[in-house]
Amino acid sequence: MTNVHNILTKYWGYTSFKPMQEEVIASVLDGKDTVALLPTGGGKSLCFQVPALAMEGICIVVSPLVALMGDQINSLKERGIKALKLTGGISFDELNTLLDNALYGNYKFLYLSPERLQQEIVQNYIKQMNVNLIAVDEAHCISQWGNDFRPAYKNITVLREIHPLVPIIALTATATPEVLEDTISELRMELPVIFKNSFVRENLSYQVYKENDKLYRAEQLLKNNSGSAIVYVRNRKGTIEISDQLNSLGISATFYHGGISAKEKAQRLESWRSGRVSTMVATNAFGMGIDHPNVRFVIHLQIPESLESYFQEAGRAGRDGEYSSAVLLYNDSDKMQVIKQFVESLPTTSDLKKIYRILNNYFQIPYGEGEFTKHNFSFSEFCKTYSLNTLLAYNALNNLDRLGVIQLSQEFGRKSIVEFLVSSEEVLNYFEKDVTASVIGKTILRIYGGIFEMPTAINLDFIASKTGQTIETIISVLKKLERDGLVEMMLQITDATLTFLVPREDEKTINVISRDVEALNRKKTAQVNSVLQYIENKKTCRSVQLVSYFGETTASKCGICSVCKTSSSNLSSKEMKHLAKQILALLEGEDLNSREISEKLTFAETDVLKAIHLLMDAEKIKSNPKKQYYLN
Ligand code: ADP
Ligand code: MG
């Protein structure tokens, strides 16, 4: 293990491991399948990066988010470690070159999305590589019981088939026992060693308030904030509105959601990271893998759909170990809203039967047939044809996908986004010279009125039908416009492709899966209920409530959440001072954590914690990364 320490210091300049890292690394080096279940900010990346550097060969990292990969690659490159990534949007030629590099260029890390992994050429190259470790980051995405479930994650097992002897390490911060079990079995891990660290975050104050004027409350919290903040809202429109409102209140804010272009995302992220803008207003699309140290506030203006996602989002505060707040603001209509959005929109068995039947009719599948047939699928057109409730239909199709009746390609639910970068005059001038571009371009301008003002989602099928051109032609025109600097775009070839995986048997098909459907619905309902219970329970320490949801039953009261803070202390200010003095006296001898301090004193634990925080605020004491306190 000295080698491992050397690597840590040589490449990262760190002197010691964070809790559990060393144990995880040892297990990997021992060749064992390993699960690292560490909270957000727990240092999971090093758990596979360090052992991979200690071994010959290349580590394959499967990671769900492109932005996240970019960050990790950059950080590795800065440290002089050779790493590359395969994401969407690269041409076949580029792909070949990259894979050649990975194979022959002494690279240590190859990051790829699960979708990329499905390509045969990628698999063929990986076969030839000397793979030392397979790392699956944010591994809970593989579980259909989790919130971030991604169908393509199911096929990661192909790596196990290609390199059966190479250990797999799965990393996640989502710890519910069900998701964990599912993740392990889906990845076909063999007798994995599971490392789990406490999910208690001692510097994080969880607060929940019922508030009619949520924006006012947010303003009060944020106006003296010297660090960064994240404000989570439910939808895209909300991000823009709230960020405008905060700006007009003098709080510098920007916004982020899944629909803005990659370039804009990068710019907004950068202005927030650099501190030029203090507050990021975002949907839950913002976050996975965001590692920003001085986030002092994470404020939720709406009720999250599960405690899993709440814990992750809240956990982005205070990653530097300084005192930070995670504040959930809600009112009664929010409670109704979360039920409406996440419970009432759950498709029942009979909803599924209906959707499945019309889906078959839509593609004219005869009874008993259709198995393994593949179709281009425009979700919006489908809903329009049958006047379906889109949320319900969306959930129903996702369920059919999860339960193996159909398979939807990854693009499902997304669209191509186009943004014009130059003025309309310049565009029209350009069209003068190019007839095809002109036909297609002008049609786009006609259909999408506001496209000069903002990035706009376009439907390629629709443009094709309007112009009488093939989708390929439209794409090549758009690509040319992009090369010539007129537009920027994120391209999705069709809404989705849909493959039927079983022959059409109408009700019978659905009856087979009805138990799973109901289990899924129960699970989802229970998740929402857990959040509502968390909000309603004003008696139990917030931190205790959260970590016990994740199976940790031994945690003690945090002393700093909205429950602990308001539970009245019996101590007079004189007694408090006395207690504070005793703590200072204890710390003269040695550095101690809050438990140890509490054990040495006769005061109630909540009072001790309160005194510790008063001393912290007065800068009489400080804490080290081991959560021990010492005299300042
Ligand atoms: P996670 O993936 O668990 O959320 P990351 O791997 O992104 O966490 O790490 C969080 C932060 O902790 C990063 O800035 C990382 O550099 C830092 N970190 C990781 N290991 C150590 C260590 N041993 N000592 C100090 N900092 C560390
Ligand atoms: Mg991570």
What does this structure look like?
The mean pLDDT is 88. Helices cover 47% and strands 16% of the residues. By secondary structure, the protein is α/β, with parallel strands linked by helices. It is built from 27 helices and 22 strands. Strand 21 and strand 22 (628-631) form a beta hairpin. The strands form five sheets. The protein has a seven-stranded parallel beta sheet, sandwiched between helices. The protein has a six-stranded parallel beta sheet with strand order 8-13-12-9-11-10, with helices on both faces. It has five domains: 2-196, Rossmann fold (3-Layer(aba) Sandwich), CATH 3.40.50; 204-330, P-loop containing nucleotide triphosphate hydrolases (Rossmann fold, 3-Layer(aba) Sandwich); 339-413 and 496-526, Arc Repressor Mutant, subunit A; 416-490, Arc Repressor Mutant, subunit A, CATH 1.10.10; 569-631, Orthogonal Bundle (Arc Repressor Mutant, subunit A). The site of magnesium ion has 4 residues, from helix 3.
What's the arrangement of secondary structure elements?
Layout: H1 2-12, H2 21-29, E1 34-37, H3 44-54, E2 58-62, H4 66-78, E3 83-86, H5 92-104, E4 109-112, H6 114-117, H7 120-128, E5 131-136, H8 157-162, E6 168-172, H9 177-186, E7 193-196, E8 204-210, H10 214-222, E9 228-232, H11 236-248, E10 253-256, H12 262-273, E11 279-282, E12 295-300, H13 307-314, E13 324-330, H14 332-342, H15 349-362, E14 374-377, H16 379-385, H17 390-402, E15 406-408, E16 416-420, H18 424-432, H19 435-447, E17 456-458, H20 460-467, H21 471-483, E18 487-490, E19 496-500, H22 506-536, H23 542-549, H24 562-566, H25 573-589, E20 592-593, H26 594-599, H27 605-617, E21 621-623, E22 628-631
Parallel strand pairs: 1-6, 1-7, 2-4, 2-5, 3-4, 5-6, 8-13, 9-11, 9-12, 10-11, 12-13
Antiparallel strand pairs: 14-19, 15-19, 16-17, 16-18, 20-22, 21-22
Helix pairs in contact: 1-3, 2-3, 5-7, 14-22, 15-17, 15-22, 18-19, 19-21, 25-27
The protein binds adenosine-5'-diphosphate and magnesium ion.
